[in-house]
Amino acid sequence: MTGGPGAGKSTLLDYVASSAGEAETIRIEGLEPEAEIGLAGLHRLLLFHPERRSVLPPAQRRALDASLGLADRAEAAPFLLGLAVLTVLNDLSRSRLLVCLVDDAHWLDYESAQVLAFMARRLQNERILMVFAARDRPEAIVFSGIPELAVRALGPDDAVEVLLSAAGEIPLDRQVARDIAARAEGNPLALIEVGRELAARRAPPSALLDEPLPVGYRLRRYYEAQIRRVPEETRQLLLLAAADMGSAPGTLWRATELAGLGPDAAGPAERSRLIDLSPDLRFRHPVIRAAAYGSASEQARRQAHGVLAAAARALDDQQAAAWHLAAATLPPAEDVAAELEAAAAVAHDRGSLLNESVFLARAAELKPSGVAGDTAPPARGRGGAVGRRAPARRIPHRPHTTVRACPRTCPSRAPAGPSPACDGPIGRRGARRAARRGPVVPGRGPRAGPRHTARGRHSHDGCQPDDCPGQLPLSSADASSGASAMVQRAPARSTC
């Protein structure tokens, strides 16, 4: 089996081992530290049954004993050594079926790989199954002639199910899950680790603004080792590219100019097959991007975001500039929060409710402790005209504050009927439904007009800010799961 890191090869070997029933299973894995030690892998394979050497003909036993350091070094005889291993395993399989699994075969030393492949190509009527799992390596021709199964990426639907399963009870919107799955390119390990990060609430659904996927150490370490081998200037370029959120074309190259990086900085990364430069710079896999970002220090990340903010501002990309500036800033920073609120208004005008909620949540994080400002977008009148923003009462922001429906004791409860007055905040499930619909504007949109309120939504005619506040603050986790920090205003029935 061949496939990239995290494709699921080891999991498939686990499945083979669990399905083997009463067959004897021998499993080894190639180890990078032993990749240059001759016959180290073969030695670990034969340690399971050293007593079986007694069945070997004298010539084969001399070759095997010499290779294992059990006798004086004999003249190299790869053919006899391959026959000796085949004879030992064939004798072992006489009593019961034998399943031999070799994981990370690309890290086997060359002599061991040569012997095991020699043996595998000669299995015909023996009661032996051999399965190798190796990463895609075009130069590894030692396994040629052995039937190959390429482990492909998961399809979109399967990828979403894997992510949702790993996320557990976290209320992750399916549209957000599809976005994350697409960016993970169906890599099972990436999806599982992102889901676990979300389940542990260590990371929001960062797909909302195209941040690097929060993959774990197991998947990152392979690419981090490759990144460490390129020059410092190239690593700086990779960090800028990883921190870039897919903003306006030319932002990355403008940022490299501001950072003083030369035109040849991308060359070593391209030769190492970390990135492609045609038609524009892109990482060969999302996990490489995550490794380039995750392996950098917090200070280096903030510096990269600061450079990208300057580049985005020069290109008049307001949303990207605000987001990068926030990522480069430590709270409190009320001026940066104001820029985020302005970017949220832009996102609202473009119909991106999810991006708007993330901007507002980040703005709340950057405001001084104990104050949550008015982060609602401008209220719109009939026909979409922008009117005055409804006043919002400032209340203390608590990490786990959630959106609540207006209490039944609200003095402004009105009889049924459409009304342009304020509508109570929607709950989390309603916010996720609103995120899928897009913003609702009175007089237009897919859900304009009277609403049924079986799902807990109600309206209030003549509500005053002190009686029925127009909005409540959200934690970043709430915003990330699709809950908007604004109140969607629309005609509705007030039959709670």
What does this molecule look like?
With 496 residues, the chain is mainly alpha-helical. Among the domains are: 135 residues, no CATH class; 60 residues; 99 residues, no CATH class. It contains 19 helices and five strands. The chain has a three-stranded parallel beta sheet, sandwiched between helices. Helix 3 crosses helix 4 and helix 11 crosses helix 14. The longest helix is centred in the middle third of the chain and has 17 residues.
The tally of helices reads 19
Side by side, the strands of the main sheet go: 1-2-3
Using only C-alpha atoms, the radius of gyration works out to: 30 Å
Let me know the number of strands: 5
Write the layout of secondary structure elements.
Blueprint: H1 9-18, E1 24-29, H2 40-46, H3 58-67, H4 78-92, E2 98-103, H5 110-120, E3 128-132, H6 156-167, H7 174-183, H8 188-199, H9 217-228, H10 232-243, H11 251-258, H12 267-271, E4 275-276, E5 282-283, H13 286-294, H14 298-314, H15 318-327, H16 334-349, H17 353-366, H18 428-437, H19 476-480
Parallel strand pairs: 1-2, 2-3
Antiparallel strand pairs: 4-5
Helix pairs in contact: 2-5, 3-4, 4-5, 6-7, 6-8, 9-13, 10-13, 10-14, 11-14, 14-15, 15-16, 16-17
Descriptive tags:
5 strands; three-stranded parallel beta sheet; single chain; 496 residues; mainly alpha
In short:
Among the domains are: 9-143, no CATH class; 156-215; 218-316, no CATH class. Helix content is 41%, strand content 4%.
